[in-house]
Each structure stands twice: as structure tokens, then as C-alpha cells.
């Protein structure tokens, strides 16, 4: 690993991004460590879920996906990590009479890893320059403004430079001290304090500075402060190092921002050195200013030309370390140096795990077909991605490298969720775009195989939420569902097909959908065709009639349960459109399982798609409001999403079948909590109170079956 290249901590997708800082040792000459920002390396405790979560890797990047295949260079030192999941700096050290903020943690380097304090574009760091001692900052609190800023006199505005993984080499000038808020965990309590960092203002290289323009949402500004004007917003950028002006018109004002940055996200941890190559600090973060922009629900962060640094003397004191003297190294093939990228979000690919996932995929006949297609066309597609401009642009514009990266990283943990989108692009969008461009640019053999298999591949992309789910989906059909809307326009889904005692087939859905908003028994219920993916509005067709249901508590096996369920009597099977007959033909889930806490479950609904979750509670009490009436809802199922960034269910999913890993029915979704957890009725009380049994197909829907020889 060479300076300026990336390193990765663990096989995780939950980490920040940053840059390696200094190579240090413990006071007294013990050990070899890499020092970077604590917020880059993560929150303690670690290692509870994945054994190698402490590992830090040196990368060997692929040509298109930025994947890492090399050996680890060290382990994070657990006790130096920040204890809280918070953006605030979480440590400070008192030197003399003054507190200084410290955002710093250590990576213990493997004995086989070479070490060097040579920074790209800067050279070898000669020594540490302790400005706290040199400027006698520890004797008394600096005088500061109400914002906590203490400008430095001209003689202390020293030129500095840094090399970071994101912006690489940049120059600046130390211009001020700033008092920042710190949060420390002490005795189980969060202690809020104040401590000092220094600020650097970028010195841009000669040439035209980049310009950004933002349309100001003055209505939102004036709602909070009627006296707010565009000029007052501009004034918030005074002393930011940016050239900010007001443009646009009086009715549509804009903020015009000119200037360059000393750092960007991803540079945190980079060493800051003076012109004599003496290290003065560690880059903590860029200074941000928030503005309200039209069309954006959340404030937009504008990075100013200023960045904040941690005094190197304060970091060394907190961690009991010192700069590794020149000439001291350890043996090995990899090199650890300031400026290397550390990605809390990137992780190495485990070749053995990738091989195991591939073997699992090809264990069944559908997987073997997919594997054969990949092997047959991989070389051609790779060549087109790298050398055909049209294919290359499509691949990168639709986030192909990012999706491939995620899938390969997840090989070692196939239960981890795959992203539903990256920068607004869904996996199915990428596949459709690549299908179209490869049909235009690919060989005749490739085009023929795309035409033959595109529907199956796109269906898998729609359905899979994890690599494990993808592997299982390749061998199993997707459980059917029918999107419905009642006579008053209430939408939902019917996720279970049932038969009553007389043999008539019905779809099972929620009472608040089938009979909600004043709909009556006997009213028409319509079905919506599968999503048209933007090709036009879905036209509902008649499905059947609303029939009996139950909304309230029932007794089942000596327990009390809330039930929100109703039946839809189906029209004659032969009178339904082809797409609906195909859906009703199944196979629908029929086996019923008892819900168990901790069980893995899934559901497929129109609002959130196919989601995986865990049964958190099988006796969850709720109090829903349905049609302006409050209900007691005992004995419910509470389902937490496997992906913490995604809801398990949402409005529109009501009526979806809740299935376990063996595709057995465990519940009927009817709601969601504010946190995105799903709420469902257990399926057994629902079937019992309505007197129905799940069936796999509705080929005889619309009339009761007549046994041979039975009189009419």
C-alpha cells in the first residue's frame, strides 16, 4: 500500500470516510500506530457481530469498482474510539489552564507493514511542532467573539498544507482559533463542554475559482424570522474564506458562492504541516454553513473555505504518543503513510466468501443458468464497459460500479441488505439501461441471451433485498399478491387466497381496506395491474365484491387478539383479465406457522416492495385509530426491518402476507409504527374467525366446487 491509496476498516457498510494521519509510537518507543480521526474509525464497542470488524486494510483498487483484495495492515485500538454516535468531538485534554478538543484514534499496525511519515506531494515530516507550547496557549483562555472565534495576529497566521484522500494536496493559512462544543461520556452520562481547535483558510491556486448558485427559499426564512433578507444570509458567510454575493431577482433571490476548499469530506485525519514540513495538527473537518434552498426539504450544507484542525500536541498528550522518528520502520510489503484513504464505508472483498456465494447460486438449476450466462458474456461486457464510450457512460451514469461493489462486499455477509437505490438510481434502473445499450452495442449472441432472459433478471432485481434473498429467489417463485382499491378509493393489497366451507374462493385483505371509509358489504372491489414503471396510469378492473370481515378483538386458543381482516368474493375466473387470472392461479402460500420471537420474516407490498425483517414481539399491544375510531389491539406481531435505513412496511402495504423463511404464513400486515416497524395480525386467529383456509390456486374462483355425483 502506497501513500495516497485507500485503506478500509472491516467488512462493514456503516462507516465514515477519511484519511490516515501520522505514524506514531507510544511514549517510550513502544509499538507502531497510525493516528487518524476517531470519527473516521468508528464508535466502540466493536466486534460483536463480525469477527474482523477491527481490521484495517490496504487497498488494491479494481479498474471499475474500487474494490480491495489485499491483506490487513492493522487493527483499530478499541479504547481510543469515540463512545457516542454523535457528530460532536468526543474528547478534550486539559493543558495548563485550557481545554483543547481532540478527535483522534489509533490503528495498531501489523508487524509486516512498513511505516513511513512521508506525505505525498509534501515529503518527509521532519518533526512535530507544538503550537500550544510555542504560543503559550495553555496559560489562559483566548479572548474570543460571541461565536467563539479568536482571530490570530498576523505573525501567527502561518502557511500550512495537507494531503488528503479526497482533495489531495491543498494549501492554506492558519487564521483563527475556535471554541467548539465537545461531548464526553463519563460514568454513563454525556458531559457537554467547550474546547479549542484551530481554523485554516484555503489559499486557492491561481486560476478561475468554481462558482455555485443556490435559489434561496425566502418564504421559509421569513417564517422563522420576518426580518430576514438575502443580504443577512450573505452576511453569515463573512470571514468564511468564500466570496459570496446575492444574485437573481427581488422575487427569486439567489446566493452566488465563489471559492475553493482546503478540505472536503474524506480528508479527515490528514496531517497538517507547515512549510518546513513540521506537523502542526490533524485535519478534523471542514466548516459548514446551512442555507434553505427551494426544492430541498432539508437545509443544504455549503462547505466554506475554512477547515478545523486538532493541535498535534493535544492529540499526542491524549493518546500518550509521539511522532515515529525518521528511519524507524517495520518490515513487510505494504506501506502505511499519511495521506492514505481510510473508508469506514468501503470494505475488502473476501475471495473465499465470493466463491461460496457463487457456489450457492449455482446449486440449483435457475442459478446454474444465470451463472452460465455470466461466464459466457463477462469478457465481452467488461470490454464494452472499458472501451465502448456509449456503454461506459451508461454504466457509470447508472451507478454500475457502486452496485457491483456492494454485491461483492456483501458476499461474506449475504444477509446484509442490498441498497434500494444509490443517488436516486435503483438496481432495476441500471439493469434496464444496460439492457438497452447492450442490445444496441453487443454481439448477436449477447443480444439473443438478453432478449431471452431479461424478464427473469429484472424480476430478481425487483424482489431481492439481500444477497441471501437473491440466492433463494433464483430457485423459488415470488408469492403472488393483488393490489386492490375499494369502492371508496381506499388502496391496499390482498396477500392470501382462501376458500370457505362451501368451497368458494376469496382473497383475504384488511377490513380497513375492503370496508374502509364507509364501503359496504357487497360493494365492488377493484384490482390494479402490476406497476407500469412510469408507462402510464394503472387502470383498475373489477375483481369481485366485499364480503364479511372482522375489525376488533377475537378469542383464539384462550387468548385475545386484534383482527383487521375481510374477504373479497371473486368474480368468475374466466371473466377476469389474463394478468389477473395468472396471478390468481398461484402458487399462493398455504402453510401456516406459529410466530416465534426473533424469527426472520418477509413481506411483499406495493409501498415498500419486498422487505425482510425480524419478529420483535409476538404479543405486541397497539391502539390504532381506524375510520375515526380507537381500537385496543392486543396480541399483534411487531416486525423490525433488517435494514435499519428502510421501513419494513408503510401505508399501501396493508393486507400483505407476512411469511417466514420457509414461505409459511405467520401474519397479515395492517399497519406500521412511526419508526418503520411493521404491525400484523397473527394469521391463525384471522383464518379462524372468518372460517377460511388458505389455498394455492383460484382456478375455480367465482363458484363453489361441486363434487362428482353430488346433487345440486
Short précis:
This protein has 15 helices and 42 strands.
Bin the helical content: 10-25%
- Please count the helical segments: 15
Distance between the termini: 83 Å
- The portion of residues forming beta strands comes to 35-45%
For the sheet with most strands, the description reads:
9 strands, mixed
Helix/strand-derived class? Answer: alpha+beta
Number of strands: 42
Strand arrangement across the biggest beta sheet: 2-26-1-5-6-9-4-3-24
Q: How would you name the oligomeric state of the polypeptide chains in this document?
A: single chain
Average predicted local confidence, pLDDT: 83
How big is the Rg? 31 Å
Report low-confidence residues grouped into runs of 5 or more.
1-7, 60-70, 343-348, 532-536, 700-712
The general outline is elongated
Describe, in plain words, how this protein is organized in 3D:
This protein is of the alpha+beta class and 712 residues long. It has 15 helices and 42 strands. The strands form 9 sheets. Strands 2-26-1-5-6-9-4-3-24 form a 9-stranded mixed beta sheet. An 8-stranded antiparallel beta sheet has the order 28-27-31-32-33-30-29-42. Strands 15-16-17-23-22-21 form a 6-stranded antiparallel beta barrel.
